[in-house]
Batch of 3 targets.
Target 1
Amino acid sequence: MRKIITEIKWRGLILNKTNGLSYILNRKVSMYSGFDPTYSSLHIGNLMSIILSIHFKNYGHKVLFLLGTSTSLIGDPSGKKGERSLIKRHDLCLYYRQIRQQLFKFSNQFNIPILNNNWNNKIKLIDFSRKIGKCFSINYMLNKDSVKKRLRSISFTEFTYPLLQAYDFYYLYQKQQCVLQIGGSDQWGNITCGIELIKNKTQTKVHGLTHPLLTKSDGTKFGKTDNGDNIWLDPKLTSPYKFYQFWINRSDVQAKQLIKIFTFSNKRAIYKLITLHDRAPCLRILQRKIAKATTILVHSKNTFTDIYHLNNLLFNPKITNLNTYFRPKDFFLLKQYIPCKTIRLNSTPLKVKILDLLILDNFICQSKTEVLRKMKVNSLLLNMKTFFSDYVITKKDLIDHHFIIIKKGKKNFYLLYFK
C-alpha cells in the first residue's frame, strides 16, 4: 500500500502532506475528496483531484467523493481576492444534480461512492459554536492564508467556511473511518482545520495531502466561479473538440509534466514516450497521448474517435477540393463538435458579402476592422482558401450544398450551415 506515495510523487501529484502519511498507507485506509457545486460543471483543475482519487482506489484504498452542498451556500474564501456572491438555493440544486452526474461517470467506472454533506443542515448555530468553534482560537484562524490575505474584507460568513469543512472531515472520520482528505493546494488550510478538530475531539491523528494547482495561461487557477478561459468537463460549456485541442496545444515543457498527471501509463512507458517525443517534437507525441487519454476519460472512446477523425480532416495540408474531401457524415460530426451557426435562406439566390457574413451576430469576428486585420496576415480562410474583402458568397461556395467552413487563426474552425 505504501507504494502509492512513490507513485503519485514521481507523477507530480504531491505538494503538501502530513508527517506520517506514508506509514499509515501501509494498510488500507478510507479517504475522501470534496467538490463544492458552486457552478454547473467541474473543470480540468478538478480532474486532477479525481485522477489522484483514482490512483488511491487502484492501490486498494477506500475512496469517497463528497459533494459540498451545504458548504457551497457559504463559499470557500481560499484563493479568492474578494467576497463571493452567495448562491441561490435553486441554483445550488441544479448545480448539485449536474456535478453529481459528472462525478457519477467516474464513480460508476471506479466504484467510488458519492456522498452529500447535508448533515451540516441539521446543526444548530449554538451547538456548532459550542462543539466546533470552541476547538479553534481566533489566533489559529487568523494565521490561515485564506483569512490573512483578506483580513480587512473577509465576512464572518466566509470566515466560518474552514470550520464547516473541518466538521465534514470529523463527521466522515466518525461515520466512514476517513483518515485522509485530499485536494488542491489551496485547500491545505481547510484540510489542516479538519485535522486539528479531529485531534482535539478524539486525540487521533489523521492526515491530509494536496496536489499542485493546474493554472491557466495568465497564471491563475482554474475555478468554477472564475469562468474566464476555463476548460470545463461539461460538453455544452467546452465542446469535446475544444477540450481535445486544449491538450494538443500544450507546450513541450508542459506536456512532459501533464503526461504524468493526466494519464495512467506507467513510469517506463511515459519516459519512453518522452524520449520518442524529443526525437521528433513536431509529431507532438506527448500532446496527442494526453489528449486521447483525457478525452476518453472525461467523454468517451467513441467521442475521441470522432474528434480524431475531424482533426485529421481539418488539419490536412493536402486539401484541394472540399466537396470531394468531406463526406456528408463528416458534416454531422462538424455540427456536433465545432461552433456552428444556422443561416436560413429565402427563395432569392444566395449573395452575401463576406465581410457581412463574418461579423454576423459576432459569431466569428467582432468587427469589419478585425476581419480586415486578420485577412492581411492570411488568418482567415474560406473553405481553406484566402479571399478578398469584396468577395461575395454564392451557392458555388457551399460544400455539399449547405456548408461553409471558416478557419480563424491556426486552430479555430467555424461551420456555417445554410438551410
Target 2
Amino acid sequence: MSPAASSEREFHSLTEIVEQTMEEAGDGHISVDHLMSSFGHASFVPLLVLPALVLITPLSGVPGLSTVCGLIIMMIAAQQLVGHSQIWLPRWIRNRQVNSDKLHPAMRRLLPLTRLIDRAARERLTFLFKPPFLWLLPLSCVIFGAMMPLMEFIPFSSSLIGVAVTLIAFSILTRDGIFALFALVPLGVVIWGVTSVLSSL
C-alpha cells in the first residue's frame, strides 16, 4: 500500500491498524519513519495506538524500546493536545527500526484481542469527547509517556501503560467513552506499583 493511499484512509478499529502495520512491515526491517509515512503524518490516533500496542507485546522486553515508545506516545499526544495538524518526531526516533521477523508474530498475537475489543465498541459516554474532558484524554497519554523511562525498572508496568494508552486511543477512535474509563484500571495498578516501590526505598 502506498503512503499516499494510506494517508487518506480512515481507521475505525484496532484490527485495521494492526493488519496495516503487518502489511507495511514486509520483510527485513521497518522504521518509525516508514510507518508515519504509510499511516499519514496527520493520523494521530493510529500512530498513538502503535507504540502502545508494542508495549503490550513481548517486544517491550527489548532494552530501551519501552522508553522510545513512551517518548513517541508523549510527543504525539502533546501535539494532539495543542492542536497540531501534522505529527513531528525527531530524526533519531524516526530512524529507529524494528525487525519484521519479530514484529509480525507480536502483531499476530494481538489480533484475537483487538477483534474482541472492536466487536464491543459503540458510541457511549460521548460527553468525554467534548471540552473540557476532551483535553484530559491526550493529556493522560502525555503523562503516561513521560512516566515510561521510570517504568523500565518496574516489571510489567510498561505493558499496563500500553494497555491504558491503547484503551484511551481506541475510545477516541470509536467515541466509546467506556474504554476511556477502563483505562483507569491499569493506571490504578501502575500508581499502586510505583507507590509500593517508592515506599520500600
Target 3
Amino acid sequence: MTDAAKRPDGPAGLAEQVEGYLLWQARVAEAEQRARAFTEPMQWLTTAQREEIEEHYVSDCLLRARADLQRVAERCRALRGEYEERYRQLRARCFAFVLTALAVLAGAAVLALALVRP
C-alpha cells in the first residue's frame, strides 16, 4: 500500500497534507537561512561559489531532515503496532475478568437460592 493510499480522505486528509507541506516549507526556509548564515563570514567567495555552497548545504540539510522524518514515522508505526497489541491484550483481560465476575455472581446467586429453599 502506498503512502497516498494510507492517507485519510476528505477535509482531515487535506488538512494533514497542507500541514505537512507547510512544515516542509518551513524546514526548507530554515535550511536556506542557515546556509546563508554559514557562507556569510566567507567574504572571499565569489557569488557563484557562495550559491554553490549554499545549494549543497540546503540539499544536505533537507536530505538529513527527510531521513529524520522517515525514522520518526517508522518509530510511530512501530509504537502504534505495540499499543494496538497491548490494547488487544487489555481488552481480552477485561473481558475475561467480566466473564469471571459474572460466573462468580451467578454461582453466588445459585448458592443463595439453594440455601433459601428448604
